[in-house]
Each structure stands twice: as structure tokens, then as C-alpha cells.
Request: fold
Amino acid sequence: MIYLAAEHFVRAPQWTWYILGYFFFAGLTGGCYALATLLRLVGDARDEPAARLGFYASFVTLLVCPVLLTADLGASWWKFWHMLVDVTPGDQGLNFKYWSPMSVGVWALLVFGLFAAVSALESFVLDRRAGARPLGGIAGLVFNVIGGVFALFIASYTGVLLSVSNQPIWSDTWMLGGLFLASGLSGSAALLALLTRYRPDAAFSLGRLHEADGYFSILELVLLVAFFLTIIAAGTAGPTVPLLPLWLLALVGIGSSLVVARGHMRIRPAGGSAAIARAGTDTLVVSALVLLGVLALRAAVIFSAQ
Amino acid sequence: MAVTIKPGESYGFFTDTSICIGCKACEVACKEWNQLQGDSPKFLADSYDNTGQLDDQNWRHVKFIDDVPAQSADAGNGKAFLMMSDVCKHCKHASCMEVCPTGAIIRTEFDTVFIQQDVCNGCRNCIAACPYSVIALNPATGTAHKCTLCYDRLQGGLQPACAKACPTQSIQFGPLAELQQAADVRLAALHSQGVTQAQLYGRDDKIYGGLNAFFLLMDKPETYGLPNAENAKLPSRNDVGGYVGALVTAVLGVIAGIVAFRRRGTS
Reply:
């Protein structure tokens, strides 16, 4: 995989703003669903409001995704469904290529949409009336876990999609899938932390979300270093330099997460989540920086090869 | 060269760059037959090339590779152009076809690679994958375009327009096996004349399983903007590595989430 002086003579696909937007929201929709599932499965009963917040956030951010993908097709927007159905005369049928991340991703987005919609609807029902989960028991847990697997895929496959090409930088590394996933989880934790400001009963989970964000940021930092090492080894790191401000913005987001997570770890023995919940302005600033970093990271990766 | 064209056989181009004179008759014939308007001519200031690149409007492009010291001149004196009529390579293992999510890119009954315009939806995955920078998006139609190897002419028993128009037979069209034989003979002749730098590109299966449009080059492939055998790789090479990287991260991410969210009696 790693070799020096990879040579590329390929044209850039002009995947720009719509795709950047899609990659951003795909990271958030997948990340929010995965975190909501984890909060429900391993968290305290008092984490349930934050879990529902996660399912809502996942559904809302999901709604943007097909709009962006369709708009990106330009004059052929009305043929978006050709991703799913092969209309070749004499060879009609469903389109599924397991070796093409774009093909797999479209199907995964469709299936994940079902999980995200049902989970958001269930959260809405539970918020309207107290009682047992409509999808209760083992079936409900299994439903969330399967949805969570699809969610992790949605948050990560966009990076794999870039790698499965012949573009410089993108195809010179295997780190993009993991990097986008770690960044998406970090951004989702930051988004949910921000949203707890508007749902007081979810404030219990605020410190936990910051702590999780810190772990995801460590993972993201490690993968970012690995990403640069691989493209330096391939000899294609040069085009990343002009985008230094974007890389720095991504690092600021990572750094902010770590600072707040460290703060939470320190004060947890003295007051835990409740103490963090009072630090509203910090959460607002840090979450904004993290989300900006998530966007900047994807912009830097997308535009450095084009 | 009269060729009887039959479905079910492999056809292609053998482009002998050693006898290309850069007249661009191929570019004109291609545009005329395929009704391509072309881009506005550009002044590139380094050669007689004012086309610039293969794209949705230029399915043939004569490259002028400048600044090559001529062997016959003294050091520092004399320069030569390497000229090459570039085109879609119609690869046996085509990167564009591999990644196309709609099934728009197919292999025809003549073993050529063809983009079905009514099926393509302009996702541009093929553009990111084509290692030769051949395919481009036509913004007006919202679809990807490239050389069809004159699919419509082949169906009518006619050879492609570019090969028909080439005055020096630098572009030869025919059954692939015959072209490969002709190329071997030509290469042997050049080597016997002392032109040892001559080499075939895409004649064998080292480059994407073999190219239906292959070349005789007068320098190494990179000089012509062609990836060498080491760099000619399919996009799917990164499938497993990319997904494994994502899977490992997912496992670590879930563990991190469990550690952060686990029940521990915080109040």
C-alpha cells in the first residue's frame, strides 16, 4: 500500500460544496444515532432524554443528505434514482456493487433512513406520553443496535469512497474512513452537548458527552497523524500545505474537545455532570469550534486533492 | 486498412507516436463525426497545442510534449516534440466501469468501454477513478462524456473517424490481436534501427489488464502523462484497507462511548 512517489494523472471530479455539506451531515447523522444508541444501551436511566435528543438530531441532519446529493447531480438531478435501479435497456434491475462505496453508501443511506425515522418517531411518542417504549424489550435494543451499525457505516463510508479512487492524497491512504468516523462522532457529541442547552432534562448527560468527545478527539488526532504519515510516504502531501488554515481549524476543534473533556474529568469527583451543566457558555463555544473543525477537516481533505 | 467489423470480437486502436506529426486531423474528424462543439481555443504558450486536455468536448487530444533533448543534436542544442494522439484507453479492467454506481458504463459487443448517456446521472465517480484524465462532465447534459470508439460507426461497419482521418497511420484501428502483432513488428523494427527507447504501452496485461487503445511510445510513460505499471492500480485496491480502517475506528469509538456513558452513579 505505502510506496514512495505515487504518480497521478487523474482529473478532479469537482466534488465541492454540496459534497462537503453531505460529508458533514453524514458524519453528524451517523454519529448522533450511534451516540444515542450507546446512551440508551449502556447509560444511566437519566441519559434517556439525551438519547432521544440524539435520535432527533440524527433524523433532522439526515433529511439534508439526499437533498445535497441530488443537488450535486446538476442537470441530471432527476436521475438520482439510477443509483438504485439500473435502467440499461435489456439489463434492468437493482443496482448494488459491493466493491463501489458509492453504490453501497446509497443503499446504506436508504436503510439507515428507515432506522433514523423510526427511532425519531419513537422518541417523539415517548416524549408525548410517559410509558414503556413502543419498541420495547430485546426487539427495541436489537433495532437500535442494527441502526447503530448502519449509523457508523454512514459516518465512515464517505472517507472510504474518497480512497476508492485514483485521486492523489485520497487514494494514497486508508485512514480517511476512520478519520471521518472519529471526527463525525466528535462533532456529534459536541452537537448533542450543545443541544442539551435547549432540553434541561438532558443536562445530566452533558459531562458524559464532553468526556466522550475527548476520547473521540484523541482517536481523531491519532488518525490525522497516521493520515499525514501515509501521504508523506506516498509523496503526495504537497497540495495539503495551501490549506493550512483549514487543518489548523480542525486541530483547534480537536484541542477544544480535549480541554473541555479534561475539565470534566477533573471536576467529576466534586460534582460531575451537574457542575459541567452550569458551564453553558463554554459548551456553546467549544461545540461551535468542534463542529467548525469537523467541517474544516472535510473541506481540507476534499479540496486538497482538487 | 479495410477491416470487417463483427460483434463479439475485440477492437481497438494502436497509436504509433513515432510517426505522429501533430496535424490534429484526428481531433477534427472526431469532433465532426461526434458533433462536438469543442472548447474555445486556448493559447498555451508552450507548443502548437491549443486543445489542452481530453474532456467532454475533446475525445482525441494531440499532446505536444516539449523540451526533450534530441539525440541527434549536441548537448544543449536542438529540441524535439514528442507528439501523441491521446484517447480513452478502453482498459480491460476499467477503473471508471469498476466504480460506476449506476451501471451506465458498459463493455460493448466490440469489447470497448461506453458510457450510456440515458443511464448516467452525473455522479462523477468515474472522473475521480479514471487514471488517464479522460472522462469529463458535460454541464449542459449533466452526464459524463468520453470517446465511444465511434460505437455508432462500428455498428454500421465503419472504422472510427480518427483512424480514418489520420494521414500517417499513426492511429491504426482493427481487431486487437492483429494490432498487437503489428505493434510487435513495428517495435522490433525500431529496436533494430537503434531506437532503443521505443516501447509499447498497454500492449500486455501489466497496465489495467491490457488496453484496447494501446501505444508505441518514444519515452517512458510518465513523460506522456501515463501512469507506469507500478502506479496503474484499480480504485478497488483500497476497498479492504479503507473499510478495515473504518471498522477498527468504529470498534474503538464504541469502546470510548461505553467508557464515557457507562453507569457509574454520577449525580
Q: What stands out?
A: Chain B has one domain: 11-235. DSSP finds seven helices and ten strands in chain B. Chain B has a mean pLDDT of 93.
